[in-house]
Specification:
Elements: E1 2-3, E2 13-17, H1 22-33, E3 38-42, H2 47-59, H3 64-68, E4 76-78, E5 84-85, H4 88-94
Parallel strand pairs: 2-3
Antiparallel strand pairs: 1-3, 2-4, 4-5
Length: about 120
């Protein structure tokens, strides 16, 4: 499923996430608001997407710290050049874009309430 600013032949970010993850929903909301092109791959609705995410998570060093604290690592984002990151808020800040407020309910899917 493609969102925001998709253009013919245009390369975009790939976001591995879940609609059940408040941090993923906040990421999508922000990217949509700023017109950032992405493809959202829901790992809870597709075994193919889950498998691709697990391969990525098991092979990319950016996930090592998250795995050590038993974090799932969502959203996991792949740039157009193939580099992987999880800090979508930092990505926006690098572009000079303020992070729009997150989930007003304050829900999160990790025990420390900081995301998935």
């Amino acid at each position: 499923m493609l969102f925001s600013g998709e253009g013919k032949g245009k390369r975009m970010l790939k976001i591995y996430g879940s609609e059940m993850c408040p941090d993923c929903v906040a990421c999508k909301r922000n990217f949509d608001a700023y017109g950032i092109s992405y493809e959202f791959l829901d790992v809870t609705k597709s075994l193919r997407h889950l498998r691709a995410f697990l391969i990525l998570r098991d092979s990319e060093p950016v996930f090592d710290r998250l795995k050590a604290i038993h974090d799932i690592g969502l959203p996991g984002i792949v740039r157009e050049d193939g580099t992987v990151f999880t800090d979508w808020e930092g990505y926006l800040q690098e572009k000079g874009l303020p992070v729009l407020s997150g989930d007003p309910s304050g829900s999160a899917c990790s025990l420390d309430r900081k995301g998935c």
